[in-house]
Amino acid sequence: MSSVRVIEINENISAHNDTAAGKVRRMLTENGTFFINIMSAPGSGKTTLLTALINRLKEKVRIAEMDVDIESTLDAQRVADATGVPSLQIHNGGLCHIDADMTYRALQEFDLKGIELLILENIGNLVCPAEFDTGAHKNIMLFSVPEGDDKPLKYPLMFTVSDIILITKTDTMAYFNFDLEKAEKNIRNLNPDAVILPVSAKTGAGMDALEELLMKEMRQVQHV
Ligand SMILES: Nc1nc2c(ncn2[C@@H]2O[C@H](COP(=O)(O)OP(=O)(O)O)[C@@H](O)[C@H]2O)c(=O)[nH]1
Ligand SMILES: [Mg+2]
Question: What is the crossing angle of helices 100-107 and 2-30, to 10°?
Fold first, then answer.
């Protein structure tokens, strides 16, 4: 009996979150803001990659960034110091995810007028963030070479809900037993439509392709 209750509670939360996420997405689309949600395990290279990405794009596109963390302000500060774009740290009270209501509340803290690209660095976790639609137009996940090519088999939901999957730290490929073809096959089995892009924030490999892809996706949202 108690297990039936748990299922009902989950369904309610999920339905409410989907409605709230739809509201966030509509609001940002109307504002001409392309919103991306960046997810990965801790240490896969989110802050490093998005800092490099912002520095490539910031002369062309108006950008704002949000970082979710349990209590530190390290990552938002790192991004603000390295890029100069408006950056907001969200403390989420120790939860392992951010949901659409929390995203909506955080957005009230920004002057979104003129912001074309909004980037969320989600909590480093491959389970909880996959379960909550934040209202982003695209979910982007990072999967780093040192984590191993079998990661999709262990965390299937994250690979299923991601639109763009970046295989990061490709500069370390020689040091790890990582089979790129096998990794891509493992991803394709779960998510045939995902865009898969190998990148290295350290060497810059793949960054032109990532920039081009994001600019194309951004223009699509702006022309809705
Ligand atoms: N070799 C290599 N190291 C990287 C790369 N990107 C990030 N790192 C390193 O990985 C560690 C974690 O990066 P960070 O951006 O903080 O990951 P996050 O926890 O996902 O935000 C840091 O020591 C980075 O310098 C990369 O492309 N190549
Ligand atoms: Mg980080």
Answer: 30
The CA distance from 201 to 111, in Å, is 29
Ligand 1 pocket mutation pick from 38, 39, 48 by most atoms within 8 angstroms of CB: 48
CA distance 99 to 23: 12
> In the sheet that 195-198 helps form, which strands lie side by side, from edge to edge?
87-91, 63-69, 117-124, 34-40, 138-144, 164-168, 195-198
CATH architecture of 20-218: 3-Layer(aba) Sandwich (3.40)
Tell me the backbone φ, ψ of residue 159, rounded to 5 degrees: -75, -25
Q: How much distance in Å is there from the Cα of 185 to the middle of ligand 2?
A: 27
Two structure tokens written together for 103: 């995203």
**Distance separating alpha carbons of residues 121 and 85, to the nearest angstrom:** 14
- The angle subtended at Cα 144 by Cα 142 and Cα 149, nearest 5°, is 110
CA 223 – CA 2 distance, rounded (Å): 48
Whether pLDDT at 13 is above 80: no
Kindly report the pTM of this predicted structure: 0.93
CA–centroid distance, 43 to ligand 2, in Å, is 7
> What is the Cα–Cα distance from 129 to 123, expressed in whole angstroms?
7
Amino acid (1-letter code) at residue 111: D
What residues does ligand 1 touch, defined as CB less than 6 Å away?
40, 42-48, 124, 168-169, 171-172, 200-202
The answer to whether the beta carbons of residues 178 and 149 sit under 8 Å apart is yes
- Tell me the one-letter amino acid at 73: T
Q: What is the pLDDT of residue 4?
A: 57
